[in-house]
Amino acid sequence: MIVGVDGTVFVDKLTGIGRYCYELLIEWAKLSPEKTFYIYTPFALSVTFDNKNIIVKKDSFFSKGNRFNRVKKLIWMHFLLPIYLKKDDVDIFWSGNGIVPFFKTTKLMITIHDFVYKLFPETMHPMSYYNRKFFQAIAINKSDIIFSNSQSTANELKIYYNREVDDVIRPSISNIFKQKEQNEIKNVINKYHLPDKYNLIVATFEPRKNLELFISIYIDILSKNIDLSPLVLVGKSGWKDSSINELIKKGIKLNYILETGYIDYDDLPSLYSGADTFFMPSLYEGFGIPILEARRCGTSVICSNVPAMQEAGGENCIYHIPTKEGIENALNSLANKEINFINDYANDFKETWKTGALKVNTLANSLK
Question: Is residue 200 within 8 Å of 295, Cβ to Cβ?
Fold first, then answer.
């Protein structure tokens, strides 16, 4: 069987969706050495694959300088990619990003990660919004198999499109995420010039992450001499982040906030392990991989009560409504030591990338 794979999720440095697809694909290729996987991409990838049965097919029509050209990406996806899939006799095409070519030339399998464009369209880049609004519906109608990253997303698919998922395949995380020794924590803290005590957020700076509200409240609480550790922000800029960046600059000047930017992936477990508390105040998520990463490292978690995030957080995270009042109450309770955390190391979460790959393989084989 020849499996085509949408490589656009591997172009930028890996975050949520890209990391999900990367780890799942690697395990799937290991599990199925008899299959050949063609990764189709208009741009150079940010990652490499050691699996011998994974072959990258970069389109020579596009140069690196065009990688951010959304219009050309759309042209490639909907007009050029279908030709390549037919020419290569691809048996099934997997889009981990939930968008498929407009012209169907093979069997299609998609992963649905969220419905931001339905619930919080105002937090999206306009072109991303219209791309999702139009092409997501087409993909759902055309696809032979659909699986989601959470039960919450599966429920939303049923509500918005009256379609059941064929399976739910939740993200797992790498084995590197575990509680680290003090010397490992200290080395990473020193590497990024961080204090011994800090709280942590790992996120892309964009409206859906609710960082502007959270940071403004955090600064306000610390300005009242309330006892909270400085806030460390790890991540990259997204879009519509100018007001967030202004708040961060203000917090840095007051020594309330520290910013690392995008850090080495292997340093994340030590950064989680050294944090007093991990926060994720998002308005909406399709799952919430950083919550699971923090839990595995033994870090206390306070996050929004979004249903999908509760799938990642389990029973022992502290949840709040992602509003001004909800965030203020959570932070004041933390500062007043009114919260009793139970660090369970995510022992209740049994999914692995291997079990996920087994499910994907079963779904793909059902189309033979």
Answer: no
In a domain, 342, yes or no: no
**Cα–Cα separations (whole angstroms), residue 295 to 215, 232, 261, 318:** 22, 17, 22, 12
Enumerate the H helices of the chain as residue ranges. 16-31, 70-75, 81-87, 116-119, 126-142, 151-161, 182-191, 211-223, 242-253, 268-274, 289-296, 307-313, 324-335, 353-365
Which residues span the domain enclosing 213? 182-335
Please, is 204 exposed, middle or buried when counting C-beta atoms within 10 Å of its C-beta (0-12, 13-18, 19+)?
middle
| 360 phi and psi angles, rounded to 5 deg | -60, -45
Mean pLDDT of 116-142: 93
According to DSSP, the β-strands at 54-58 and 92-95 are unpaired
Q: Would you say residue 345 lies in a domain?
A: no
Q: Are residues 206 and 286 in the same domain?
A: yes
Percent helix, percent strand, percent coil in the chain, to nearest 5: 45, 15, 40
Residue 308 and residue 198 in one domain: yes
DSSP state for residue 180 in the 8-state scheme:
P
User: Are both 311 and 163 inside the same structural domain?
Assistant: no
- Contact between residue 254 and residue 225 where contact means Cβ atoms under 8 Å apart: no
The answer to whether 145 touches 109, Cβ cutoff 8 Å, is yes
The string of DSSP letters for 130-154 reads: HHHHHHHHHHHHH-SEEEESSHHHH
CA nearest neighbour of 123 among 292, 323, 285: 285
Residue 261 banded pLDDT, cuts 50, 70, 90? confident
Cα separation, 273 vs 296, in Å, equals: 9
Residue 87: partners with Cβ closer than 8 Å, 6 or more residues away:
none
Query: Checking DSSP bridges between strand 300-304 and strand 167-168, what pairing results, if any?
Result: unpaired
Token pair recorded at residue 101 = 């070519």
Of all residues in the chain, what percent carry a pLDDT higher than 90? 82
pTM of the entire predicted model: 0.91
Q: 282 and 305: one domain? A: yes
CA angle 363, 365, 366 (to 5 degrees): 65
> Could you give the maximum distance between any two Cα atoms of the chain, in Å?
66
